[in-house]
Amino acid sequence: MFRYLKTSVFLLLLFVFICCVIYPLVLWGFGQALFPFQSNGSIVMGPDGKPVGSLLIAQPFSKDEYFKPRPSAASYDASASASSSLAASNYALRDRVARTLGPIVKYRSGPKTGQPAAPDVEAWFRKDSFQGKPHIVAQWADLHNGLAQAWVKADPANGAFVDAWTGKHQGLVTQWIKDNPATPKPQAADLAVLFFEHFSYDHPGKFLSVVTHKAANGKTTTSIEPVKEGADIQSIFFDMWRQEHPKATFQDVPADLVAASASGLDPHISLQNAELQIDGVASKWADNLKRDPGAVKKEIEGILREKASAPWFGLAGEPFVNVLEVNLELRKRYGAPSD
Fold first, then answer.
1. Positions of the chain with pLDDT lower than 50, given as ranges
2. What is the Cα 303 distance to its own chain's centre?
3. pTM for the whole thing?
């Protein structure tokens, strides 16, 4: 009896040793010897030699000089991989898609075929009228309270701006508290609708955006100011403009431009997606470098062609590019983007 038990324990330990020690060590050895880059997570280095990310996991790029990855319901957090699961009737999904399309979508037919709709969105916004009523920003905040609150929460500077406004309008805040007794100590996000309603009356045809100023000594500063044009207006109010221009038709866009992947971490975008972004990227680099936008665009097109690939060595699927890889090449070629 003891002999059989001893044999069983020995075999158990032997198999545990083989499966949990020998097998992983063999795989690790082969990986390090034959595929060291892939087996270590496909980590790439920046110009300073420090790791900047993995070619396998998407990350956000906020500067206009860089290409943008697919939308991410996980906020590009590798520890929270997930899809949004938003229904087609959810306005949050419609808003996300509209914000992506606003700055880049182009007309498909009519006298402005091939031209972007963004300038028309800005011109319409400056008229400050939606469905025959004035004060577009106030209507936006009233119709979509969650979006107004999300704007306040999106950046600490936004919340600080609302807090500063609150300090100058204590009478309005006091009345708001009387009307909302369940919130005796409102935070900036709680007062988002109230803030935008009064902002709309004080600054008709304008919205808030980050503005960069360059001093005589070359230093740059940023502040939140009322503006009447720009990417924020083009994106946030594109859907309202679309509702008033239902007959406008636009060129098709690739699905990955507006749809998040199942994981929210897809590091690639289609080549068609990148080509839609290239005008804005090239224009920004040309402005920074004081060069001809057309020449810069041709150079970036060359980078995209060089980095593009398709599944199974091009035998299947659409060409795609790795966003991090392309942006690193832009950084290497043109230097650091402006602040």
1. none
2. 22
3. 0.79
